[in-house]
Amino acid sequence: MEHYDVVIIGTGPAGLGAAFALLDARPGLRIALIDRNQYSSGGLRNDCKMNFSWPVGFPEDDWDKAVAERYLERVERFLAPNILERKSVDMYAHRAERLGARLLEIRQAHLGTDGGLALIKRLVAELSDRGASPSLGETVVSIHAERGVMATDKRELSFGAALVAPGRAGFSFLQDVMRANGVAFVDNVVDVGVRVELREDRYPIVHDYYDPKFLFPKKVRTFCTNSRAAHVVQEKYEDDAGVWYSVNGHAWSADRPANGLANFAMLKTIALTEPLASGQDYARALGAQAMLLGGGHPIMQRIGDFRLGKRSTRDAFTGDLYDFAPTLASCTPGDLGLAVPAKVMRALWNALKSLDTIVPGILHPSTVLYYPEIKTYANKPVFLDPASFRAAPRLYLAGDGAGTSRGITAAWASGMRVADGIMDELGLHP
User: Fold this and answer.
1) Cα torsion at 214, 218, 224, 225 (round to 10°)?
2) Handedness of CA 42, 45, 47, 50 (dihedral sign)
3) Can the peptide bond before residue 59 be classed as cis, meaning omega within 30 degrees of 0?
């Protein structure tokens, strides 16, 4: 049986952040990084926008400002980002304030999907050069933290400590790990919304602020804005109950030709209470309903059709006012009113109307609403040591799937925080 000082499951920002922090503190440490995908996964692959300001990305149940900023400084020092200039946002902020909304001012960097892929390739190669052992296309089958052993579809391993950081797509896997190791958790929060796609000149704020963060009443917010060379994509979610798809957005770097389009998510946070229900199960049910109506695909509707109360059709997606083709061509034209829960749709529509007042033009008839965009990253484990995200002896949980972050930089920071805890638990400090 192979033995490693630390085994990291998931090669997204949390896993990479932990690996580099451990090797910086203790060169020569035996570290295995395992990912079920054939490639290094995680948020760095998808548009690769990074936020470097509290509180964006940091769940306040797990972080306070001082701790988050201390780790953010370490993340920024390691990644050395090129911070984008933010210009002429006072007008938009003032308009938002008059409507009871808020525009956050965030220090941001953007590499684009191609830039993110190049960064991942460089980081994984550097870890290998420093003695770590990345293993892609390997699936963890079981983890027994108390004994310090795990099994994959290829081998058995023993470990001093294990970090499980599978990201949002590994939500169900993480729950299986927690149940098997007696870690209590709550899964009652989910973000449900739409992906909005429009011509970039109808959302001109992106020329001054790449990913504007608007907060609206009813726990609605904009999220993950993409422009320049922007596309809408679908993401696959698979568990024992079947397969469903959520939509997402990405953009290439400034080196690629622009397509004149932008997209962003409008999300509503839903906290399920008594009887305490699973946010994952609720998300799965919404996703399955959308797949039913879309014939196995997400659905989309033009704003012009939505306002008229009629479904969109494939023929209506060309010509005249509908002056651009949707970038996710496999999406099924349909009627969001049949799929989105009414309370959620009202909150999203009210926020979109307010945003159209702040940035006039987004509710042009050609604007496309894609559904569902669902974020299932709200597992809330009960940590044995909240300071280090240790859930059981030898077992640490971090990243978006574990609810300790929402985004690249906070996930990287949570991995660093775990690394500090592992060094303490195993007595590995130099």
Assistant:
1) -50
2) positive
3) no
pLDDT tens-digit series, residues 175-192: 999 999 999 998 888 899
| 219 three-class SS | coil
Answer yes or no: is 255 within a domain. Answer: yes
pLDDT at position 378 is 64
Task: Let me know how long the chain is.
Answer: 430
Rounded Cα gap, residues 129 and 133, in angstroms: 9
Give the mean pLDDT of the chain.
92
* Residue-by-residue DSSP string for 13-81: HHHHHHHHHHHHHSTT--EEEEESSSS--SGGGTT-EEE-STTTT--TTT--HHHHHHHHHHHHHHH--
Query: What Å distances lie between residue 147 and 248, 393, 395, CA to CA?
Result: 39, 10, 11
* Bridge partner residues of 351 (DSSP): none
Q: Are strands 380-381 and 185-186 parallel, antiparallel or unpaired?
A: antiparallel
Look at residue 301 and give its three-state secondary structure: strand
The reply to whether 281 and 352 lie within a common domain is: yes
pLDDT confidence tier of residue 421, bands split at 50, 70 and 90:
very high
pTM: 0.89
Q: Which residue has the tokens 């790990």?
A: 177
Find the Cα–Cα–Cα–Cα dihedral 304, 232, 268, 219, rounded to 10°: -100
Using CA atoms, how far apart are residues 143 and 141, in angstroms rounded to an integer?
Answer: 7
For residue 249, being part of any structural domain is answered with: yes
Q: Is 44 a member of any domain?
A: yes
DSSP string, 381-422: E--SBTTTTEEETTEEE-SGGGTS-SSHHHHHHHHHHHHHHH
Residue 273 maps to a domain: yes
Say yes or no: 161 and 197 in one domain.
no
Write out the residue range of the structural domain in which residue 154 sits: 2-85+107-186+379-426
